[in-house]
């Protein structure tokens, strides 16, 4: 990739802008510098853009569909570039065995059954691996539904269906020896006030951390709402279009 690659220059400019806005939002919220991490979501964009991002210092890449992510991760690895892959989309149980092969952190576990399927996949993966590692398990965030509609993804606080009850999903992840509960993730509902939605999320995160102090990650905020998310304690923002351009 040449230094005068115009696509790289475009991404570099967007990234510089975004980093400035993240720093400003963090500063305004009284957060420590470096407290808010960035995952660049590359769905619909090619592996070449991931390589460009890595060359610009981006270490964490998000994808929302296994069918797209698995070959892209393989292509990026082939080119000798190492990044951490985050799985951020709705996950089907039959995709778990594929996702555990490349993902470092799965943001979107939202049912007890999915937690069990992911734990099974992570266990098989560790058994077939010959690498000697003290890997403490696959990182998992439990996705919280802020509109209480589990069909749109996310576990629900005090749900009537135990499979999608937030406390039960959290307990299932925390209790699986091949998974490591790292925290929570949420997407603000489309028509909601993001400050209100993320404020509610902050309360839920605090409640979960009382039981599980290791659950320190809060993945919240996308291109359109990462500033309010940072105001309410996001430690990871997931940004796609503000860096890579609008998706078709
Ligand atoms: C696509 C996606 C993002 C990034 O969205 P943008 O609006 O492009 O920043 C973040 N989180 C999830 C779960 C996504 O699917």
Could you characterize what this model shows?
With 248 residues, the chain is of the alpha/beta class. Helix content is 42%, strand content 17%. An 8-stranded parallel beta sheet has the order 7-6-5-4-3-2-1-8. The site of pyridoxal-5'-phosphate has 14 residues, from strand 8 and helix 9.
SSE inventory with pairings:
Elements: H1 6-28, E1 37-41, H2 47-55, E2 60-63, H3 66-78, E3 84-87, H4 96-99, E4 103-109, H5 112-128, E5 138-144, H6 166-174, E6 179-186, H7 194-211, E7 217-219, H8 226-231, E8 236-239, H9 241-244
Parallel strand pairs: 1-2, 1-8, 2-3, 3-4, 4-5, 5-6, 6-7
This protein binds pyridoxal-5'-phosphate.
Low-confidence spans: none
Number of strands: 8
Strand content: 15-25%
- Output the radius of gyration: 18 Å
Helix content bin: 40-55%
Name the descriptors.
alpha/beta; 248 residues; 9 helices; binds pyridoxal-5'-phosphate; eight-stranded parallel sheet
What would a concise description of this structure say?
This protein is of the alpha/beta class.
């Amino acid at each position: 990739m040449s230094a005068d690659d115009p696509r790289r220059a475009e991404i570099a400019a967007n990234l510089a802008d975004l980093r400035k806005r993240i720093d400003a939002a963090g500063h305004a919220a009284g957060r420590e510098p470096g407290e808010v991490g960035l995952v660049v979501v590359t769905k619909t964009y090619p592996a070449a853009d991931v390589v460009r991002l890595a060359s610009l210092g981006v270490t964490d890449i998000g994808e929302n569909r296994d069918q797209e992510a698995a070959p892209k991760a393989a292509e990026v690895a082939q080119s000798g570039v190492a990044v951490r892959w985050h799985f951020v989309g709705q996950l089907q149980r039959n995709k778990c065995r594929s996702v555990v092969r490349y993902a470092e952190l799965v943001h979107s576990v939202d049912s007890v059954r999915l937690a069990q399927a992911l734990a099974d996949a992570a266990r098989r993966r560790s058994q077939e691996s010959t690498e000697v590692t003290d890997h403490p398990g696959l990182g998992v965030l439990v996705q919280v539904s802020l509109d209480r509609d589990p069909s749109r993804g996310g576990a629900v606080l005090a749900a009537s269906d135990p499979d999608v009850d937030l406390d039960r999903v959290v307990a299932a992840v925390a209790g699986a020896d091949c998974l490591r509960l790292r925290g929570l993730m949420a997407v603000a509902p489309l028509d909601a006030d993001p400050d209100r939605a993320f404020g509610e999320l902050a309360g839920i995160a605090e409640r979960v951390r009382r039981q599980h102090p290791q659950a320190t990650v809060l993945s919240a905020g996308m291109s359109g709402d990462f500033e309010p998310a940072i105001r309410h304690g996001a430690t990871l923002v997931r940004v796609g279009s503000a860096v890579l351009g609008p998706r078709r």
